[in-house]
Amino acid sequence: MMPVSTPGPAKNTDADEIGEMDDVWHALEPIEFGLASSDCGVRLDKVLSQHISQFSRSRIQQWIEAGRVTLDGTVAQMKTPVFGDEQVVVLPEAAPEETAFRPEPMALAIIAEDAAILVLDKPAGLVVHPAAGNWSGTLLNGLLHRFPALAGVPRAGIVHRLDKDTSGLMVVAKTLEAHTDLVRQLQARTVHREYLALVWGTPQLSGKVEGAIGRHPRDRVKMAVLESPRAKPALTHYRRLASGLLDGRAVSLVQCQLETGRTHQIRVHMQSLGFPLVGDGLYGKQHLASAFPRQALQAWKLGLMHPATHKPCAWSVPLAPDFAALLSRAGIDSSSIS
Fold this sequence. Notes:
Strand content: 25-35%
Shape: elongated
Structural class: alpha+beta
Radius of gyration: 25 Å
Order of helices and strands: EEHHEEEEEHEHEEEEEEHEEH
Low-confidence stretches: 1-27
Number of helices: 6
Mean pLDDT: 88
Number of strands: 16
Helix content: 10-25%
Distance between the termini: 20 Å
């Protein structure tokens, strides 16, 4: 049998202690200029966009609304009248997306690490990659602080994602070569990923869901199983491990194995069978969403070919404490999961 690495349980690795982060990182110099008589009566944001045309009007409007523009020392409002003889001071501020790749200290639960890769246990509540509404405080920010060299690797070495409220295993590439290799493995569907999910109801003992996934035609926040040519093929295998009762309703602990990695894949596929995840306010029944503060889903096992040694590696992590407590509430013994 080929060797398989089996590291010990996860440990929290606190981010290095550093002094207070420089609050003016990415700061822009104040802009000062005087208005002319020809500016009299012109809308403030239009006047400013004419004088500082290197910035878009929408950006200038954001600065006005944030109180970062003064006329003769007084904070200006969008409707402040312009008379044409005022002294203007603009305090520019970088857009959130421009600081998205800023290193930020963060505790990381590192399971295994070598020169090529690191494997970590992502907690629920942590966004993986900066995007609209989450331009900071993401896993990417924490990785850049803990491993500055990742600034030279695409997406700081992140090759796959977990939803914000999904806990569990992720692999991160530490070199360009490892990044390329892991991406190819994911594309070839040779990365082994197993999840544990608690769903409402009692699905059959085992089965598979083969349904293409695309953006929901009416609710753009959701994904859905579709027959549209734009939908991407998706395949999930599942197996029922145990059943119990939660708040008087039947629930089942299900093991899911992914052959593809589509957005919200397990959540969408299990919901399409009529067994939405406990705590899933997006795809589950709203009156049951309060049973758990997040979708009950954990990336439990991860297996792949090491990009440097080309030997098979596998990792697993215990259930997150909140997930384990949820199973206990449902009368399911989490210690029997192996």
